[in-house]
Amino acid sequence: MSEINIFLEEGNIKGNNPANPGNPVSTVHPFKFLDSYTKEDRAIFFGREQELEDIYRKFYKSRILLVYGKSGTGKSSIVNCGLVSRIPPEDILIIHPHDAGIKGIKSGDFVNIYSERGETNMRVEISDIVKPGVIYTTFHFPEAGINFLTSNVGDEYTLTPEYKVVAVDFKKSLYGQFKRPECNNIQRSS
């Protein structure tokens, strides 16, 4: 009986193939032993899809997400590889499937969003994590211009903005992300 020699090299299993000596065994190894998975490991991170979906939904329903558990259970991996891989590198607008269907919008499309105060445009994700008639956006990136849609009122003592709820309308952008956000109420000094 032939023996297969296998060794670990930079996260991959490599070895000789006695059945075909000119074709060595090489496969990506999905287990990182004690190291946690990172965003770069997304292709080999699997088996926790339902848990990741639950965390992803909670991430968008709350301002703070606490992930806790016993040491070694994969908390860092599910956040740093699973959750971070699903968070877009830009602000997105989340629209319920019913509302998106009415306006002919698909995930990945850009929409123009309008309020009394201003307008902006952003990429869409269709999801039932919002209710019909309600849209939601992240506001991590200033260049998205979400504050142009809301008021500039804030608490003078804590320096925090008021709760960000505003009546808006939106429509599919025919040109993608083509213009900068605008604010209709900017007071310019002369």
Question: What are its keywords?
Answer:
three-stranded antiparallel sheet; disordered C terminus; Barwin-like endoglucanases; six-stranded mixed sheet; 3 helices; alpha+beta
What is the number of beta strands?
Answer: 9
Q: Briefly note the CATH topology name of the largest domain.
A: Barwin-like endoglucanases
Proportion in helices? 10-25%
- CATH class designation of the largest domain: Mainly Beta
Give the integer mean of the pLDDT values: 76
Low-confidence stretches: 1-15, 186-190
Largest sheet: 6 strands, mixed
Any idea how many domains?
3
**CATH architecture assignment of the largest domain:** Beta Barrel
SSE string, helices as H and strands as E = EEEHHEHEEEEE
Distance between the termini: 89 Å
Task: Report Rg.
Answer: 24 Å
Beta strand %: 15-25%
Structural class: alpha+beta
Tell me the overall shape. globular
Q: How many helices?
A: 3
Your description of this structure?
The protein is an alpha+beta fold. It folds into three domains: 1-30, no CATH class; 35-87; 92-183, Barwin-like endoglucanases. Helix content is 17%, strand content 21%. It contains three helices and nine strands; from the N terminus they run βββααβαβββββ. It has helices at 49-61, 75-86, 97-103, and strands at residues 6-9, 12-15, 25-28, 92-95, 110-114, 118-126, 135-137, 169-172, 182-183. The strands form two sheets. Strands 4, 5, 6, 7, 8 and 9 form a six-stranded mixed sheet that branches. Strands 1-2-3 form a three-stranded antiparallel sheet, with no helix packed on it. The longest helix is centred in the first third of the chain and has 13 residues, at 49-61. The N and C termini lie far apart (89 Å).
